[in-house]
Structure formats: C-alpha cells, structure tokens
Amino acid sequence: MNKAKHIYVVYIATTAEKLWKAITQGDLARQYWGHENVSDWKVGSRWSHVTADQERKERIVGKVIEVTPPTRLVMSWADPKDAADMTQHSKVSFDIEPLDEMVKLTVTHDELVADSNMERGISKGWPLVLSSMKSFLETGKGLDIWATKKPA
User: Fold this and answer.
1) Pairwise CA distance, residues 49 & 126, whole Å
2) pLDDT for 16-69, tens place per residue?
3) What is the pLDDT of residues 96-145, one digit of tens each?
C-alpha cells in the first residue's frame, strides 16, 4: 500500500505558547477551525476532533503519540469509522519553532493511504485551517473556512 506525506509551513506573529493553546484548547480551535480538539493531551490518550454544535459529532479520532509543550505534538488521525483499522490511520505532527517575534509552524501529515478520501480531504483542508489559524492568532478572528464549500 502506497503512503503519502504532506508538509505545510506557516509563519505566524504569535508566541509558541499561544499557538500551542490554539491547537489543544477546544474553545480556541473552534474559533478558527469550527471544530474542537478534545483530549487530556497525555501520551497514549485518545483525542477527537468534534463539531462545535450541539450534536458534538466526532469527525476525526486518534491517539496522542508525543507531547512536548509548546514545541511538538504528534497524534494519529483516522475517520471514526476506521478507528479499529490501524492501516487507515495516518499521523500528524505539529512542530512549533519560535523565531524572534513569530513562530514557524510545520504540520506534517504522513502515513496517509495514497489517493484515499482522507488524503484528498486533508490536502484541501490543511491549507484552509492553517490560514484561518494564522488570521485568528494575528487578528483575533478566524476565516470562514466553511464558506468555501459548495452547496449540495
């Protein structure tokens, strides 16, 4: 089975601590992602990416693999329907590097099944989410990333 890897780099005028919180605190993630990341952020713990509405539907699930606040977070990533099938899990790494008055964020999403729905989804999703995160951290307002979806 072929595996794919995507790397995204963005520079954000913020601190490593504020960026870490934006990733790991649900109330902050909701403001730029429209969803919340939920976990206790300990190695081996479950994490989930859930809708911020009353339904609280899980969109992505996984396990926390590595935690080094505020510079590195690694977690597995899977569609909830594929949670039990480890061949369908991919891995996301957030590497945060302070640089003067900003940080360099490198998001590496690897171990993806090549040409899968998940790979197609993240290749469109990460650029939107990271742009919205940058706007949120620099201006206090995330982008309406859901406005880019076409009506069914």
Assistant:
1) 14
2) 999 999 999 999 999 999 899 999 999 999 999 998 888 899 999 999 999 999
3) 999 999 999 999 999 999 999 999 999 999 999 999 999 999 999 999 88
Number of structural domains found in the chain? 1
| Percent of the chain whose pLDDT exceeds 90 | 88
- Bridge partners, residue 72, by sequence: 68, 95
CATH number of the domain to which 137 belongs: 3.30.530.20
In the DSSP assignment, the letter for residue 84 is: T
> Residue 67: which domain range?
3-143
Q: Does 150 fall in a domain? A: no
CA distance 79 to 13: 32
pTM of the predicted model, to two decimals? 0.93
List 110's β-bridge partners, or say none.
91
Torsion of CA 116, 20, 52, 132, to 10 degrees: -70
* 3-state secondary structure (DSSP) of residue 144: coil
What is the phi/psi pair of residue 91, to 5°?
A: -135, 135
Residue 18 to residue 96: CA distance in whole angstroms: 11
What is the C-alpha to C-alpha distance for residues 91 and 18, in angstroms, rounded to an integer? Answer: 23
